[in-house]
């Protein structure tokens, strides 16, 4: 046996779960890392952050809950009833496995962090579930219950120990007397916590250098629901930046840019590496590789010679009118392993760039947005013509009787204007919606680019489209801390004398409201299928949503996108809930609804 025991890592995770205090968590992490070899400390830092591989390592375990549940059942000998009961107690397969494997607690510990790393390497290399299962079984048979808990949590991508990567970075800094900013900066550049640990241990954090093709965190915007709220919060942000009192009326609007809020896929584009000609990286905000889904974008940017990392949005595109198609068009391409040439023609896509993070060897995140925007404009003016591939008729024809362009840019600069008045913002929102976009963004010209952070420097204004009064027809147990309560609600609207489901929501209610509803639905269950129950249609909810889509998921033919519960409407009888006709009216009134082919 060699290296740090996995049992000690698992015991640390239990301690981290038990303490809610950030400073105590940081101290525990630092003390643990400091006592390990550099190699083991690198592995532990990576696993504490909740990932089996570094950001720069594009491998994946590809082990879903079904495969892991099968492994737990085989190792523990638990039948389906026992598995279900254990999962319902915890809402987490890892914690359930700890219960089911309790008889192994007296087994001497033998697994090390290096053993776990080797197992992960083997699982990632095995292509089919049938090839992965023996490796997982061998690992779990050697594991103590608490070790199995965190092995499974890590494999499922949810450690749930109250630790984010930023806290691990602070722990690394404390362990080796570095500053958190230095560790965070090195982690952003290197994209590998094990490498950062090695640099911190040897006092060489300053040697970290930017690499293309490892995705950075994206800067996030805070939502606002009205122009007045946007004005107030933006004034607070500007005042905080200038260490002054918030401005009176009017707020300092001239210090902001306004852009459309697009309804696509947030993405980060990497291209132009001279050491790897024609290589292109396209990553989602969750750092997933999007290259297979949008191969024409990879082809379009392959000729780029200047190193760049651009932040933007992948949009389904009408090249004739140079405007975005609805997200529902783009959605047809998501999750496909193979995107055919015909589909590329039917649903053209572009990359709408609105920020530059890295250009020609310079990392730009510490520059103000005003400067980054200038550099982005110059880059696109110089290289935008390179990123062109043949267009097609496709859905674009539905928007125009004229012949579509045979060639159009795949790299487009997001239009932006200086914000001057509240009336201008109000008007800009309406115009953005008329163009089929979600709303508008307000961005402080002085704002630096803060990967993974959400603040007031960027605001997104998205007014609620409408609300519907619906009735709950089905309920499900939640996950995690909501595993023991019925917190996921399928709901319907009236259609003649019947009901038709239009969506499912699980956010918006307090824990007390969910507990009360759980008791109610338990008393009014029609059929209990274990995880899901059909219930009497008695409880009315008011729900909000982003928009309505055509969908085969429900018999109504519609589905609400991003529904959330606003209130429980005990004052409203089921006879007065909204109708399917009302749903269709809202759908048809949407400026961004897809044009339907006859």
Structure description:
It contains 20 helices and 23 strands. With 598 residues, it is α+β, with helices and mostly antiparallel strands. It folds into 3 domains: 6-156, Orthogonal Bundle (DNA ligase i, domain 1), CATH 1.10.3260.10; 220-461, D-amino Acid Aminotransferase, Chain A, domain 1 (2-Layer Sandwich), CATH 3.30.470; 467-589, Nucleic acid-binding proteins (OB fold (Dihydrolipoamide Acetyltransferase, E2P), Beta Barrel), CATH 2.40.50. A hairpin with a 2-residue loop joins strand 7 and strand 8 (362-363). Helix 1 packs antiparallel against helix 2 (22-34).
Strand-helix topology:
Elements: H1 6-18, H2 22-34, H3 38-48, H4 65-76, H5 80-90, H6 93-100, H7 113-125, H8 129-142, H9 145-156, H10 165-175, H11 180-190, H12 193-201, E1 220-224, H13 227-241, E2 256-261, E3 265-271, E4 280-284, H14 295-301, E5 308-318, E6 323-324, H15 327-331, H16 341-346, E7 349-359, E8 362-363, H17 369-383, E9 388-390, E10 407-409, E11 411-413, E12 416-418, H18 422-434, E13 439-444, E14 454-461, E15 467-477, E16 486-495, E17 498-505, H19 511-523, E18 525-528, E19 532-535, E20 540-544, E21 547-550, E22 558-561, E23 564-568, H20 580-589
Parallel strand pairs: 1-14, 7-11
Antiparallel strand pairs: 2-12, 2-13, 3-4, 3-5, 5-6, 5-7, 7-8, 9-10, 13-14, 15-16, 15-19, 15-20, 16-17, 18-19, 20-23, 21-22
Helix pairs in contact: 1-2, 1-9, 2-10, 3-12, 4-8, 5-6, 6-9, 7-8, 10-11, 11-12
